[in-house]
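hey
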């Protein structure tokens, strides 16, 4: 026997509640078991309210229950968000979080979030000055690198610096309350810039890898492609495309409230996970970064290694025919230096983005629901995010290790303020 017919309003209210709960669970890592306990908590509260108010069953009771249900959920989500940010740490809050945490213990989550916050702060402190120094040194053109290589490296450092800064503002917006960063549409713009800078950083690594592939493996194309002008065109087009691609992210947020005529707090649009257009865009975004770049870098590096090994065998055979001659192979030395720079940058990218790629296949191919992740899967997800940020500050260290002239310029840049201060002190003393 069929039950009473549900109104369109009731159906939409329930769907909105479920969508909001799903989004919050994705953000905080609430498991399926935790959602069940949450439903019981909210359900028991609404039943108690029904008894106290003494309403009879009917449309009026359904409306009141829906309102109270939504209010309780909102208050619960808000309190748990505050706790997850380390602000609310009452005994009752800890016990409730532990109950709804599913198989994830409260202690593990608390330790992970504290480590993550400290980790991001360390990355910020390291990445900003290192990328700034790299841009300053490489822009001078005294590192013994070609013009096209220098432009790629400068652009990569600038993209990494932008990604770090936008991520920093995004975290300030998350942790601060009432700051101007929470105003709409500024909070939405910050998110778009964060995504665009991330994509630029990734795809500039791909363009640099392709440029070195052409320089090493395609001698006929090298003269026309590996030039400063071509590098500038490639960089401008790549960054423009990545920025245009991320514009739709601006529309996945709506203002949550209006205070004194000012729009505040970006509220995530739950249609992103339900509407066909948004779901397709989400799949396109995840494929474009990092799946396709990861595959391209692996393929280009494999082809480059094969070409270098083949060319090395041929050159060794030719040099073996010249017995008694101790001639230096400058072309091979140049290729070796170029290959070392290429493989260290590409290898660093592959290693640091590997966890994100594995999570991509776990979610999209394996069909695992993020709301039901196990402890290890949840840690892998967070590890992927942390390693992505580590990738933003490794290139400067790579330049210092692989490029002797860059090291000289870096040491000179470090010594310059010290020498300047010493000269000023001597002048004042005299």
């Amino acid at each position: 026997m069929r039950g009473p017919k549900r109104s369109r309003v009731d159906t939409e209210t329930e769907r909105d509640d479920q969508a909001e709960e799903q989004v919050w669970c994705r953000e905080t890592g609430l498991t399926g078991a935790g959602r069940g306990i949450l439903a019981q908590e909210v359900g028991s509260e609404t039943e108690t309210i029904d008894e106290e108010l003494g309403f009879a069953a009917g449309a009026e009771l359904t409306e009141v229950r829906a309102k109270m249900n939504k209010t309780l959920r909102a208050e619960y989500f808000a309190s748990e968000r505050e706790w997850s940010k380390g602000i609310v740490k009452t005994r009752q809050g800890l016990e409730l979080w532990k109950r709804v945490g599913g198989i994830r213990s409260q202690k593990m989550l608390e330790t992970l979030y504290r480590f993550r916050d400290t980790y991001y702060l360390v990355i910020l402190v390291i990445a900003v000055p290192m990328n700034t120094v790299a841009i300053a040194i490489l822009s001078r053109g005294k590192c013994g690198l070609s013009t096209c290589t220098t432009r790629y490296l400068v652009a990569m450092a600038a993209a990494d610096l932008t990604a770090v800064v936008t991520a920093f503002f995004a975290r300030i917006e998350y942790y601060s309350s009432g700051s101007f960063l929470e105003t709409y549409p500024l909070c939405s713009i910050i998110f778009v810039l964060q995504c665009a800078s991330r994509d630029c950083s990734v795809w500039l690594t791909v363009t640099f890898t392709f440029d070195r592939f052409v320089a090493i493996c395609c001698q006929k194309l090298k003269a026309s492609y590996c030039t400063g002008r071509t590098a500038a065109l490639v960089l401008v087009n790549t960054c423009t495309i990545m920025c245009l691609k991320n514009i739709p992210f601006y529309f996945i947020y709506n203002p949550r409230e209006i205070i004194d005529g000012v729009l505040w707090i970006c509220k995530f649009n739950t249609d992103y996970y339900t509407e066909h257009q948004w779901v397709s865009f989400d799949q396109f975004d995840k494929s474009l970064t990092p799946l396709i770049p990861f595959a391209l870098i692996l393929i280009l590096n494999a082809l480059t290694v094969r070409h270098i090994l083949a060319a090395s065998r041929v050159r060794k055979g030719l040099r073996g025919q010249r017995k008694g001659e101790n001639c230096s192979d400058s072309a091979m030395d140049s290729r070796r230096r170029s290959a070392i720079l290429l493989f260290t940058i590409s290898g660093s990218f592959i290693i640091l983005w590997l966890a994100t790629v594995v999570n991509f296949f776990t979610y999209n191919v394996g069909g695992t629901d993020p709301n039901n992740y196990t402890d290890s899967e949840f840690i892998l997800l967070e590890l992927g995010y942390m390693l992505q940020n580590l990738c933003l500050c490794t290139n400067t260290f790579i330049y210092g290790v692989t490029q002797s002239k860059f090291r000289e310029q870096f040491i000179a840049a470090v010594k310059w303020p010290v020498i300047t201060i010493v000269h000023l002190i001597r002048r004042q003393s005299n």
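Confidence is low (pLDDT under 50) at residues 1-10, 26-103. The chain is about 75% helix and 5% strand.
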